[in-house]
Amino acid sequence: MKASNFSCLVTAGPTREYLDPVRFFSNASSGKMGYALASAAAARRWSVNLVSGPVCLAPPSGVSLHRVVTAADMESTCRQLFPSCDLLIMCAAVADYRPVSTERRKIKKKQESLEVHLEATRDILKALASEKRHQLCVGFAAETDHVDAHARKKLRDKNLDWIVANDVSRAGVGMEADDNCVRLFSRTGESTSFGPAPKSDVAEFILRSILGPK
Length: 214
Ligand code: C5P
Description:
Elements: E1 7-12, E2 17-20, E3 23-25, H1 32-43, E4 47-52, E5 63-67, H2 71-81, E6 87-90, E7 97-99, E8 118-120, H3 124-129, E9 136-143, H4 147-157, E10 162-167, E11 179-186, E12 191-198, H5 199-211
Parallel strand pairs: 1-4, 1-6, 4-5, 6-9, 9-10
Antiparallel strand pairs: 2-3, 7-8, 10-11, 11-12
Bound molecules: cytidine-5'-monophosphate (C5P).
């Protein structure tokens, strides 16, 4: 699939779920893997929309960048872009929980302890993949244990075509690192491992495995 009218939607980075104007729940995602995927997709002359949470990375050239902050922002932006994309790669580390309410003013430090009520965010990937028509849907699974079993379960539960699993308990690869080590599972049951390798090489491996050589 090499046509320049092939359209790819990639998400990257963390989301932030605010407790008050200056405090938020987030995670250690650097966005490097998602940006490498967007860059590799643009190098294939695809039309690329990159929906990114807050990261410190320069946008790859040839990519339309959509900056978002919260999981809800990411969901609404992806909802607009999904119908016209051919390939969704949901690489973002979307927050699974957010505070039930966000204080308008900074919370004062008066008590010994603070209880925060969290509610689940909506699973963007699961929602979009349940509505897919022609789109290929690819998810990521960052796991610390039983990586293969968890990844295969997510592939099924989220109605995905492929899932990229990585063991985030391994030193030197994964969330904030420049390198990654992944195992790619297909809907039809095959799996292939790749890495440790620079994230740009991992991105090439993923696109090649899903859609063939450049
Ligand atoms: O279930 P888990 O959060 O481990 O699944 C990870 C995959 O689901 C990633 O592809 C991530 O981008 C996506 N996800 C999502 N919306 C959420 C949580 C995760 O799209 N609220």
